[in-house]
Structure of Aldo/keto reductase:
Amino acid sequence: MMHFTLNNGVKMPGLGYGTFRSEEGSDLAKNVKHAIKVGYRSIDTAFIYQNETSVGQGIKEAIEEGLVTREELFITTKVWNDGLSFDETIQAYEDSLKRLGLDYIDLYLIHWPGLDENYVTVWKALEQLYKEERVRAIGVCNFEVPHLKHLLAHTDIVPVINQIELSPKLTQEEVRAFCKEHNIVVEAWSPLMNGELLTNETIIELAEKYERTPAQIILRWDLQSDVVTIPKSMTPKRIEENFDLFNFTISEDDMKKIDALNEDFHYGPKPTVFDFGR
């Protein structure tokens, strides 16, 4: 397993199991446990996914069955900061912790910046949680360069992570360059573009060349681009395939072919216009 060292010294697995659009229920709990059995040590969820309870149940069962210890896991969840106050943000953390059934969370993220600058207040609450050692690391999601600049100018702690939509069709060069300059690790959500990239002609050609699945090509591209990646699947075979990334390397020329697929295409909402559905 490849690990990334965050700017506070904490090590994070480069590959995680994502749960976006995975419904609460026994199937998700079963798949979280299966992912852990396969070898995943990083699990990503969020309040807005409405599945923290099932994610926590899968973690609990994996620990009880001796598949892993809590200390070996890296659990991420996110606050849906739609106008939250400082105190409401602290309470949101408490609520997520309870739903997950955990004593602490490894990485707590602001899910979206929104169209105002309320994220500064929310971030200061995350800073307090971190200073009180109630969370191992704090970061953000979907922050573009102006958001990051404003945050850094008004707060004390530099985020360890910026989790953004990133795929071969959306390589996010400007954000990645800024994050690299400030020692912020980039993490990709929707790395497979909800499966739509799996039929891309270039990706298929490379999959055939390397005798891999199209998903494995894209996820390996992430890792070789120094990007943490969190593919989501509810199919046990796909969960296993997505983890099998560490015994091949994509050549530099082929990496450039994937880079060249960029169209600055957002499959999901754009951070500059998304305002929590208000």
Remarks:
- Strands lie at 3-5, 11-13, 17-18, 42-44, 74-79, 105-110, 135-141, 161-165, 185-189, 227-229.
- The two ends are 40 Å apart (CA to CA).
- The mean pLDDT is 97.
